[in-house]
Every structure is written in C-alpha cells, then in structure tokens.
Amino acid sequence: MGCCQVHERALLGDAECTRDSQVRFARAGFFNSTEFPRLLKRWWKPPSGKKNKSKVRMEEFARICVKQKIRAEMRKVASILARPDDPLSLETLTSLNFVELSKDLAKAAPVLWNVLHEAAWSTSQAKRNTDKSPDNVSASLLFGLCCVIMNVISMLSYTRSHHSCRLAALWAIYLKSCGLSSRAFDAVHATGLAMSIRWTNDAFKTISDRQMESAVVAVKQRTWTLSYDNVNIPKRVFSMRTTNQNQFYSACAATLWVLPEYVHLPEDLGHEFRVARREGATEPFNIEDLLDGDAQDAADARIAASAKHRILRFLLDAPAFESYSHKDHPILLPPPPTDQLPAGPEHTTKQFMLYTADIEEASYDGNRQAVEEWLRQLGLSGEKLRLATDFVIAFIGDQLTVERLRGLMRYRHKDINGYERLDWVLPVFGWLHLLFAFAASILGQYEGTSAGYGLRRAFDLLKRKGLQKTLTKGPFWHHLDEALWHIGEAHILACWTRTAG
To answer: Cβ-count burial of 83 within 10 angstroms (0-12 exposed, 13-18 middle, 19+ buried)?
Structure first.
C-alpha cells in the first residue's frame, strides 16, 4: 500500500469510516490540531536537499483552492457593487460611503482583500508608513491603501459584469464634472475604473432633465432669484478635418437660487414695486439721505466694532497667544450680529443650474434673448400677463449684465405694456465682481517692486506664485485675496509687536 493510500484511508476511509463517530472525532482532532499546519508546511518544503515536485504540487493545489474561493467571493462582491434601482438619483449618488464600502468588501471577500493587501503593502513599508494601515482606513482615505484595494476589486468586478458598476458610475460622473476629455475617458473606461463616455453623457443628460423638472416646480411654489453671466467653452477635436475643427463658443450660463419654504413675498409686491419705481423716477436720488442720519451713524459704529474685533482676532489667533488664559473673556467676544441668518438644513438655499444657452451676453439683444431663454426653460414664457402685473424677478449679474438690462429698460420704457417695458425686471449688481475690482485696485496702487517696497516684495518673501500678472481665469482672485489677508495680518502683528515693545 502506497503512502498516498495510507493517508487517504487513515484520514477519510470508506463510507463506514465517514459515518463512524470515533473516526470522525479523531479526524476532526487531527485537522484542528496545531500539528496539521506544520505538517502542511513540511509537505510544501520537505526536508530534502534534492529538487522535488512536492512544492510544485502544493503550490498548484493552493492556487486551485484560492481560485475557487475567489470565484465564490466575487459573486458576493457583485451583489455589493450591483447597480442600484435608480443609480442617478440624488440619494444614491450622495449615500455612497467609501469607508463603509471598504469594510463591506473586506468582509465579503477576505481572501481577495488579503491577497491584494499583501501585494500592495510590504513589511518594510508597514514599519515606516502607518497612514496606510488597515486600522487607519478613515484617514486620508482617497489616497490610502483601502481605497486602492476597493477600486481594484471594483474594476475586477466590472470586467466580469457591467452590472457591477456602482463605484464605476460614481467615478465616471466625478471625472466628467472635472472636465476629463473624451479620449482620456476612453482610456479610463478601458481599465474598468469608470463607465464609458457615452453612458456618462447620457447620465448627465438624465440628471439635468430631472433637475430642470425640479426647478420648474420650485419656481411655482417658492421664492427665487436668478443670476447669469457669459461663459466661454472651447471645443477641441483630435482628428481635424474641414468639417471638424476646433471651435470656441461664447455662451451664457444661469443659476436659479430657490429660497427656503418659509420665505414669502407680499402678494402686492409687484404693484408696490412699480409704484415705487414710478415715484422714484420723478425726482433725483439724494445720496446725502443715505450717508447722513442716525441709521448711517449706527452702521458706522457696527463697522468699526467689526474691524476692531478682526484686529483682535489676528492677535489672539497668533501662536504666541495659544496659552493666553483670557481668550474667552466677554470683552473679546465678537460684536452682536446685525441681522443674523438662521442656519440648518431647513434654511438652506437650493440652487439649480439651467441649460447653457448659445447666446452671447455682451450686447443688448443678447441679454434680451438670454432673459427670454431663462423664462422659457422655467416654464414662464406663457405667463406674460402675470409678469406684466404681478411678478418681480431679480436678475443678478456683473456690471456689464446689469448695465445692459438697465439699458434695455430705458430703451423700451415707452412700449405698450409692462411685459415689453420690462417692468418686472429688477437688475441687481453682483458684489463679488466689486470685490474683484477692489482687490485689483489695491494691487495696482501698492504693487511696488521686488527690490523695493510693496506687495510684490511681500509676494516674493511669502513665495506666492502666479500673482505677478492680473488674470481672469483660474484661482488668481482666490490666491490674491488670501495673500492680501495674510499680508494685512502680518502688518498688524508687526504693529502689535512694536507697540508692546
């Protein structure tokens, strides 16, 4: 009798041995003993100096076992990564938690997870890098090891079935929102990380249509306002032909701002607004009434108190005052708010992006077409009578947009009805552009040189790049605003240091 037959009959035996309780007990004790793993290891690496096939056979058997285990685990993974019933709903897109998903995948596929974990995380790396530890899954998740393994499993499951696209769909929508080109999308889709560009475009169209339907409903039920501005869209082509060339669109984009449910306007606001506008047109505006009086004195006092508190915060937030025991003294508290807005989910202002219109917004006629386009998208193009008598719509824009709307109103002030005269339009200047202009004015007045004094020298000392030239694209204004605040804070701290001696 050979050795293999001895092992087989001793461990498993025939049908009678399988049913015998004493044999089953002995066999269970052998498999559960501490000697059994050591025996397997000895079979894998027997004590022989000669080359033998024991190691090859054991490794082949281990691969067969791992393959069967992984196949079973991938079926469990497919149910976790399966496409939801409504994959493009707001609840579905915002409910996916990477931490919880990683834990679910690790629980459903422990063998595959451990194999990938061992392949991606070496022993030497574990000693010097604790950020990628499995116990640190919530810290730096997007760049951590668990996120890498989670995405690898998602890619593997997506290659097995396109229905396992829960994570791939989310990455596709994210990359599309970041402006990833179609060619790059094809490469990412080939790896299984994201869905195809065609699916993503259809998904964006579905999401946009749903949001537009919600916007139309919100316009009829809630108080709202609208802001719009020009937008430049370059179109690149990768195979240029006579009928397929690069293009540059000068279009117009708008955002609808829907206020909370409890915000209501008076029913006679449209009438009162038109009466006040007619009365105000009969006499010039007196700026002295705005700048003088008790109301302005109270406003000046509030501004001065806010400025003093800002200067104090520069000092109290400095590292030297971390151990200052009187930081929370009532005299150092911020001034009371003038008209504090409530906070919370029920007080949130919703916003909806309207469809981009292929209309240039720089001219008077372009603004007229843009206003008519926004009314059409919001389902108000057939409400001309209500617009003429009851409605007041605030259009927020930059200086050019506001001047074009006011120019249209002056040009059409003798038309036969309130709709044609644009009595329902209330142009509102966007204060963000005023801040841009103010920041550019400060930069122009105090720029100086790198060798002398001024902002240029401070930018060089702080190593702030990209502020040498005023730009209208990119994060220039954000960087300039941050640099001005830091420089102002440094000057105030220097004054505190000199005053304190």
So the answer is: middle
C-alpha 164/C-alpha 457 separation (Å) is 56
Q: DSSP readout, 141-203?
A: GGGSHHHHHHHHHHHHHHHH-TT--HHHHHHHHHHHHTT--HHHHHHHHHTTSS--HHHHHHH
Q: Find, among 357, 385, 389, 388, the residue nearest to 371 by Cα.
A: 357
C-alpha to C-alpha distance for 499 and 25, rounded to whole angstroms: 88
CA separation for the pair 169, 4 (Å, rounded): 52
Highest mean pLDDT among 98-102, 191-195, 274-278, 321-325: 191-195
Give the tens place of pLDDT for each residue, 383-399. 888 888 888 999 999 88
Nearest 5°: phi and psi at 245? -130, 165
Q: Which of 141, 163, 159 is nearest to 150 (CA)?
A: 141
- How far out from the chain centre does Cα 294 lie? 45
Tens digits of residue pLDDT in 123-182: 776 666 655 555 454 444 445 678 888 999 999 999 999 888 899 999 999 999 888 888
Q: In degrees rounded to 5, what are phi and psi of residue 241?
A: -135, 180
Q: In terms of Cα–Cα distance, which of 462, 463, 467, 468 is closest to 490?
A: 462
The whole-model pTM stands at 0.76
Neighbours of 137 (CB within 10 A): 19
Residue type, 417: N
CB 483 within 8 A of CB 467: yes
Q: List Cα–Cα distances, 90 to 163, 169, 195, 340, 403, in angstroms.
A: 20, 13, 18, 30, 38
Q: Tell me the pLDDT tens digit for each residue of 264-321.
A: 888 888 888 888 888 888 887 777 777 776 777 888 888 999 999 998 888 888 888 8
The Cα–Cα gap between 173 and 162 comes to 16
Residue 83 and residue 432: Cα distance in Å, rounded? 41
